[in-house]
């Protein structure tokens, strides 16, 4: 996992960076400091936890290796949607039972609602659009399953999803040669994630949270009186309690408990220049709905409010320049195939980031075993805008002793297990990509 540079630019080339103009750089930690809480990571999880902790009068600092939103929170597709686990709804029911599957579903909806409320109450202007999300069948057999899926969503969770035929899709401005019908689930919305995460940071600073940028925590050790000591290259923080919010960007040795438990996987995004009216109508895509296809190695895409098109994919194994170039070129090939009328439209921005998986394919929110006073919330499986936001807040309440873990859905309460032979995670991924690509045909 490449660490952000100690000096120089922290830009990753995203459209989001450009869209917010300048990003405030917080100071580095020099010397010694003491707080009630130290949080590792300034993304949605860490900032949400920090804001909630200040509500209880706690003094809080955040140690961030890069700057606010340098990790996945400033790089993602901006789909504030259902997700957080890689288990299907049916697998969730089989593993945890219907009541707990409902509890998990309700938690996801509460999480989306929480983001919506924050945008309003913190007055964050984040270019919100899209009523819910549409899943597009990339082959006719997937479309055949949508009616049953809509019934399942209604029977299990009371969600009224709508099935759209290929003709309906064309009428609603969602056309493409690979779309064989759609399932519109009216939950969630889209936003500019960098505007959201910077808005959270503004709120946190205003509440007195000290954010230290370019200050990676390189060790967490017990200190006197049950406190913890966190080291950075140029300083030390002593804290009564610690919250780990590094997700896919966490160092595996900080603390050692993390080793082998998380699986960072790459996802890449390209954004085009703004499309003209003629280009939109040539392709038959004018909808502002956020969309994804039914592939396991899914594509996710949406028309942005300024008419750029955002297109994201999974894939990529190595972070060498040549491998990254191949990854971006493969994404562009997929885009050209799925949106042929836009073959000639330039990509203005392309970037990538890491999403975080676990062996059990579910997130974790709770205490770190055998580290009294240390808590973690992580592994949103590629859908963390909503889940990380709510879970950061819940983790703060857990750490304050205001709620117990039993108030959370069972699916997110078991500490992640280690992967067998963790050094081979890259090889598993290579195998998984090969297998899923075969299944997605
Ligand atoms: C390309 C891409 C597209 C995505 N699209 C979507 C989407 O459309 N919708 C959605 O819901 N989710 C999406 N996600 C996932 C979502 O972005 C993440 O789940 C979410 O941002 C995680 O937030 P977080 O705060 O837990 O972690 P992050 O935002 O990754 O923040 C962790 C921070 O911790 C810091 N850190 C780590 N270790 C240390 C340390 N030792 N010391 C100091 N700092 C440290 C890192 O620098 C980083 O800034 C996407 C992710 C990617 C990469």
Q: Determine the CATH topology of one domain.
A: FAD/NAD(P)-binding domain
Helix content: 25-40%
Q: Architecture of one domain, CATH level 2?
A: 3-Layer(bba) Sandwich
Task: Extract low-pLDDT stretches.
Answer: none
Largest sheet: 8 strands, mixed
What gross morphology would you assign?
A: globular
**CA-CA gap between termini:** 31 Å
SSE run: HEHEEHHEHHEHEEHEEEEEHEEEHEEEHH
Give Rg in angstroms: 21 Å
What is the CATH C-level name of one domain?
Alpha Beta
**Beta content:** 15-25%
The whole-number mean of residue pLDDT values reads 95
Number of strands: 18
Give a description of the structure.
This is Glycine/D-amino acid oxidase-like deaminating enzyme. It comes from Roseibium hamelinense. This protein is α/β, with parallel strands linked by helices and 441 residues long. The chain has a domain at 15-76 and 194-260 and 359-423: FAD/NAD(P)-binding domain (3-Layer(bba) Sandwich), CATH 3.50.50. The chain has helices spanning 15-20, 44-55, 89-96, 98-121, 140-144, 146-157, 166-171, 193-206, 277-283, 321-338, 385-399, 425-440, and strands at residues 31-40, 60-63, 79-80, 133-136, 162-164, 182-185, 189-190, 210-212, 219-222, 228-232, 235-244, 263-272, 290-293, 299-303, 309-314, 347-357, 364-367, 374-378. The strands form three sheets. Strands 1, 2, 8, 9, 10, 11, 17 and 18 form an eight-stranded mixed β-sheet that branches. Helix 2 runs parallel beside helix 8 and helix 2 (44-55) packs parallel to helix 11 (385-399). The model has no long low-confidence stretch (mean pLDDT 95). The structure holds flavin-adenine dinucleotide.
